[in-house]
Write a structure and sequence with these properties.
The protein is 40% helix and 17% strand. By secondary structure, it is of the alpha/beta class. Helix 2 links the parallel strand 2 and strand 3. The N and C termini lie far apart (41 Å). The protein has one domain: Rossmann fold (3-Layer(aba) Sandwich). The model has no long low-confidence stretch (mean pLDDT 97). The protein contains six helices and nine strands, in the order E-H-E-H-E-H-E-H-E-H-E-E-E-H-E. The structure holds NADPH dihydro-nicotinamide-adenine-dinucleotide phosphate. NADPH dihydro-nicotinamide-adenine-dinucleotide phosphate binds next to helix 1. Belongs to the short-chain dehydrogenases/reductases (SDR) family.
């Protein structure tokens, strides 16, 4: 019998999250929990679930709402019936500050971006870590951005978003240090053509996601606490 791996992806109803679901469904060894704020409106996910023969489960999860996260964790535990989550993908994210800068940004926007881009992954990991630890792969992936890398010298704009992704990278490091039994990484998916990346982004979403999944599947425990680009190369902090 083929070994099955369980994936949970937040923000799975569009963009990078949805493309991950589509690519993962191509392998019969994957069971996918697609989390989104409103599964009743996630028509593409519903269509995929109808054809997936029980391999795709839709759950409601708003990463800024602790109650919603805890309800989702209970529901997922029930669906999995004793199985763990091999790959927990903290993908949901927002960029409301646009091209703001350090000397023009609005701290209220920074705070709301932080609540989703950092607070979300914090609470999702806290709620689901038990299920991750029950799995074979025990892997948490925080979808970050090169924009959060000081070492990549990314310049002035996108400031509030970049600050949250730099904080997310520190979260990755802290989670990895605290729990050596799991593998936690930050992953930069590339500049991709999604609602967030816009139509002029460097790559179609399919290309970035292919690289992201290939990189995740080749991780070893020694990679924990690090940041990788979608081409598998390490990204400096
Ligand atoms: P999109 O804007 O296309 O999609 C964002 C996803 O996040 C949607 O599914 C959205 O759900 C979900 N989301 C937002 N807020 C919440 C919330 N509170 N609870 C649950 N889900 C939420 O973005 P991308 O797909 O492009 O980005 C995905 C991730 O990749 C983000 O973390 C982003 O920062 C990162 N990234 C993207 C890059 C790019 O070029 N596209 C580059 C580098 C990083 P809803 O439909 O309900 O709003």
């Amino acid at each position: 019998m083929t070994r099955e791996y369980v994936w949970l992806i937040t923000g799975a109803n569009r963009g990078i999250g949805l493309e991950m679901v589509k690519q993962l469904l191509q392998s019969p060894s994957n069971i996918i929990i697609a989390a989104s704020r409103n599964p009743a409106k996630a028509t593409e996910l519903q269509g995929l679930a109808e054809k997936a023969g029980g391999k795709l489960h839709l759950v409601a999860l708003d990463v800024t709402d602790k109650e919603s996260i805890s309800q989702a964790a209970q529901e997922v535990a029930g669906v999995l019936g004793g199985k763990g989550i091999d790959y927990l993908i903290n993908n949901a994210g927002i960029l409301p500050g646009g091209e703001d800068t350090a000397f023009s940004l609005d701290v209220d926007i920074l705070a709301s971006t932080f609540a989703t881009n950092v607070g979300g992954p914090v609470y999702v990991a806290q709620a689901f870590i038990g299920l991750v630890e029950q799995s074979e792969k025990k892997t948490v992936v925080n979808i970050s951005s090169v924009l959060g890398s000081i070492g990549s010298d990314v310049g002035v704009i996108w400031a509030s978003y970049a600050i949250t992704k730099a904080a997310l990278n520190m979260l990755t490091y802290k989670e990895a240090k605290e729990k050596p039994d799991i593998t936690v990484i930050s992953m930069c998916p590339g500049w991709l053509q999604t609602d967030m990346g816009g139509p002029n982004a460097s790559h179609p979403v399919s290309v970035g996601v292919e690289g992201v999944l290939k990189t995740i599947l080749s991780l070893t425990p020694e990679d924990s606490g690090k940041c990788f680009n979608f081409d598998g190369q390490p990204v400096p902090w």
